[in-house]
Amino acid sequence: MDFENILFKSKQLTSQITGVYELSLSGFSGSDLTEMVGVALNLCSSLNSEIQGTIATAENAQPKSKVTMDERHQNSFAARLRLALAHSGMTQAALAWGIGVSQSTISALATGRVKGVGIERGAALSEALGVNLRWLMRGEGEMQLAKFLTHNNEV
């Protein structure tokens, strides 16, 4: 996975958008701003393609995990984290990148080498994995949060 390239393109896009904003405050012509916005849109499209390609590569490279009922009822944080990872289809590296820690930190949590996950890190993990925070931290409740319908029946 080429996270460095994604980060580089993200910084380029941020710089371009900042430039558009600064020039708009300076009174540049609409045509100049339109051209710069077009460059920003191209950067955004390129970044999106890069991210989608990285996700597809990660999904194809990851072996599919079979989750047993015994694993579903594990009592340790590490076991619940491994189950949530398997259920989400994310790799440890993708999860680490998503919450801003190293892959070795996720590995240490998933193997139980690190105990005592704080509430902030637990919340970041549960949000990234799409699981219930109480379930992840304590094993209480359902793994996944219930999805509620809005007034127009969209989840």
Textual characterization of the structure:
Helix 5 packs across helix 6. Helices cover 68% and strands 0% of the residues. The radius of gyration is 20 Å and the shape is elongated. The chain has eight helices and no strands. About 4% of the residues have low confidence. By secondary structure, the chain is mainly alpha-helical. The longest helix is centred in the N-terminal third of the chain and has 32 residues. It starts with a helix and ends in a 17-residue tail after the last helix.
Mass-distribution shape: elongated
Compute the number of helices.
Answer: 8
Main beta sheet, described? Answer: none
Average residue pLDDT: 79
User: Which range best describes the helical content: under 10%, 10-25%, 25-40%, 40-55%, 55-70% or over 70%?
Assistant: 55-70%
Low-confidence stretches: 68-73
Which band does the percent of strand residues land in? under 5%
Quickly describe the structure.
The protein has 155 residues and is mainly α.
Name some characteristics of this structure:
155 residues
Topology:
Layout: H1 3-25, H2 30-61, H3 69-72, H4 77-88, H5 92-99, H6 103-111, H7 119-129, H8 133-138
Helix pairs in contact: 1-2, 5-6
